[in-house]
């Protein structure tokens, strides 16, 4: 979660995913809420996996 909060590119995307989830909940659409939540989780997983990759260039 911290990765998304400190990255200026990822943060706005995360806000948009949250907005989609809230909109689905306001519509009381279970289908849309599940789809929006799944999209957010997949995005978060891809960000985490990308950030967890070891750097290709050694830092020492």
Overall description:
With 60 residues, the chain is mainly α. It has helices at residues 2-6, 10-27, 30-52. Helix 2 runs antiparallel to helix 3. The radius of gyration is 15 Å and the shape is elongated. The relative contact order is 0.14. The model has no long low-confidence stretch (mean pLDDT 84).
What's the Cα radius of gyration?
15 Å
Q: Assign the structural class, choosing from mainly alpha, mainly beta, alpha/beta, alpha+beta, or little secondary structure.
A: mainly alpha
**What is the string of SSEs from the N terminus onward?**
HHH
Query: Percentage of helical residues?
Result: over 70%
Entry keywords:
single chain; 60 residues; mainly alpha
Task: Offer a quick outline of the entry.
The radius of gyration is 15 Å and the shape is elongated.
Write the layout of secondary structure elements.
Elements: H1 2-6, H2 10-27, H3 30-52
Helix pairs in contact: 2-3
């Amino acid at each position: 979660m911290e990765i998304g909060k400190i990255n200026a590119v990822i943060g706005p995307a995360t806000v948009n995913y949250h907005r989609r989830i809230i909109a689905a909940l306001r519509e009381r659409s279970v289908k849309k809420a599940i789809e929006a939540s799944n999209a957010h989780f997949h995005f978060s997983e891809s960000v985490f996996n990308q950030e967890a990759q070891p750097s290709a260039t050694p830092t020492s």
